[in-house]
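PT: before anyone asks, these are the final sequences, not the draft ones from last week. 412 residues across everything. Please model them as a single complex and drop the result in this thread when it's through.
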Amino acid sequence: MSENKQDTEEQIFEAASRVFQRKGYAGARMQEIADEADINKSMLHYYYRSKDKLFQKVYQREVSRFFPVIFKVLGSERPLDEKLEHLIDTYYAFLDENPRIAQFIIHEMSQHPERFRKFIREKGIQPPERFSRQISEEIDRGRMKKVDPRQLLISIVGLILFPFVARTMVELLFDLDEEQFLDFLNERKAFLVDFILNGINYKGHE
Amino acid sequence: MSENKQDTEEQIFEAASRVFQRKGYAGARMQEIADEADINKSMLHYYYRSKDKLFQKVYQREVSRFFPVIFKVLGSERPLDEKLEHLIDTYYAFLDENPRIAQFIIHEMSQHPERFRKFIREKGIQPPERFSRQISEEIDRGRMKKVDPRQLLISIVGLILFPFVARTMVELLFDLDEEQFLDFLNERKAFLVDFILNGINYKGHE
DNA sequence: ATAAAATTCAACTGTTTGGTTGAAACAAAA
DNA sequence: TTTTGTTTCAACCAAACAGTTGAATTTTAT
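LR: through. Structure below.
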């Protein structure tokens, strides 16, 4: 009962998380998860009753990890340029550790929009109002162009996520090996801060 | 033999294309394809010998449609601002007709990178050199900021594709129905031209 | 008219896969 | 010690699924 139980249960969960993120729900096999966890397949059903239940727990956890990372930073009190830099650093660090999470969520989200809707409602996940307010303020004070905060939010998130989501495409089109791809990502951080702040004509607050 | 043959074969192909794009390879069912094509399942194997062969033909066609749309425009002779506007118009029109193609390609590409590599080599698909040259020229003439053309290319493509790839996310986070989402996309066209040209500090050529 | 190809359909096969079972070994708590 | 929970394993079952077959019907070419 004691520690072995938690260990095994967690071991299964983490293995399932990796396999589901690699293959998606339809492509994942219970046997592959068992192999990845280095346990017998019976244990999967012993702890989680079905593939679907196991998947939902994994999915729910990943969704709850994915969005707060963005929204917490965007909802903070910092000035826009600092906030952007902080977001890019934080999100890149997170995505380096979880390189498949974005693609996983995007794919499963579009397979089962109702489930996604349910989860974000339950968890109360939503873009921070403070971000929109901040954008409006900056516009009013003449510190940046007039833009729709939603367009800006989607652009920022898209610019950050896209290389992770379309990694294979980037690697093959530019003929990059893994190391060169990581260099590309690192260079991208500075590029993005500059590109986005210029894009909205941000003037800071001297 | 004549026209019925081609009709049915094409009917199967188009149905398969839709189902594979909706569900992905692993999630697609041969029966669902047959139903969608409104023919008997036997016909699938009569024309295409296996699920895998049918999929590969669909995949190959979609890949050959997807990339040239971007690369042809980017490789044209126009000035940068016109080119960008033209790209956004062209690509949005294409994506309106094929709303799932980006996600489909991205997902299957990362499931089988070798296959993707093989296809783009055979088809000779690669980002147009003329685009890189043009960027270098514009930088040399002081018409824009110094940027890595690759970073710019990925940014442009990412900004365009992301709302399609993550459509469910956009709709649910901003609470948009289908019509409102289409409005969002339409507003995005003007936003993007402006955002990108500002992002690289483009000064035109008066 | 005749032959050849296209199409339909139901029924079938073989494989993959999710899920179950039961017995045996082990560990830990009571 | 007794009891309860954990773990392993091989074998198994039932459902889903890809793929096949063969006979009957229709369409098209010659």
